[in-house]
Amino acid sequence: MKFSPISFLFIIGCLGLLFLGILDVIGVFKFTHYFEFLNISKYLDFPAIFIIFGGLFANAFIISSPATVKEVVKMFGKVASQSKVTEKTLLKDINTMMVWVEEYRRNRVDFINKIQQESKDDFVKYIFTLMSTNYSVGDLNDIVETQIRYRAAESRKLADLLKNMGSSGPAFGMFGTLFGLVYMLSSLDNPSAIGPGLALGLLATLYGVSSAHLIFFPLGKKVVFLSEIQRKRDEMILECASMIIAEKSALYIKDKLLSNLNLRYINNPDIPDESEEDVAIKADEEEEGEALTETIVDEKAST
């Protein structure tokens, strides 16, 4: 292992934030006394927030590189976002792939040069660059599948870090709670100091549990979900490239690629875009409705 000055500085900074929160808890440095404008609500306590997030990010910088932690911060901005890859966009991708098939067979060299110059998708460029080297189907699959596994591993690394931060959130909440209780018990001779100490201690636990189950665990699962969708698209592009090299017919290529999609989109490509979950729910509802109809018909027939 190699010493990283940047990671060390980030760890020190995060621990400093944590200790700043602790100093406020024990009454050495009252943060809100110097910044009264931050004293907004009794449910919003910045020292407790410093303890939770200072501890969580110090933990994250110890485990992972600054680049990975940076990706965690970027994920905060994607809390309300959804994947750009849907069944509808995959259907459009298949139509684009069929254009690739025609242009590749018309003029292979010109088409590959066009892809390398005009495509904004690095993965597509990567595959067609490999195709220009005349690799066999097996060799192409081995190389690209390694790259797909690498991309999935990077996403899994980010998801694991988010999961670890979620698991540590309640622990750092309890960390703040214990300091609050110590301060409260040391102030039993001053009843007016008991309430603030207990309140801060409980808020630390509240923030720790809330951050775990409202931020870090959901974001970790979202990373895995987005990675699986992206992997499906990457595998479809690889499958298309392999079938082009194998000189499969255009009709076969299209039908093989369409088999990766929900039948609703294959039979009716103009339906509104929906998430895979919505499509699955509607399919289940339709099956239940059909079963109910059959039951009613059978009861009428028996009577």
Shape: elongated
The counted number of beta strands is 0
Task: Please state roughly what percent of the residues sit in beta strands, choosing from under 5%, 5-15%, 15-25%, 25-35%, 35-45% or over 45%.
Answer: under 5%
Contiguous low-pLDDT stretches (5 residues minimum) are: none
Please estimate the helix content. over 70%
Which structural class do you get from the secondary structure elements?
Answer: mainly alpha
Whole-Å distance between the termini?
80 Å
Question: Largest sheet, described in full?
Answer: none
Provide mean pLDDT, rounded: 82
Quaternary status: single chain
> Order of SSEs, N→C?
HHHHHHHHHHHH
Number of helices: 12
Rg calc: 28 Å
Sequence-ordered SSE layout with sheet pairings:
Blueprint: H1 5-25, H2 31-34, H3 46-63, H4 66-76, H5 87-106, H6 108-118, H7 122-131, H8 137-185, H9 191-245, H10 250-258, H11 263-267, H12 276-302
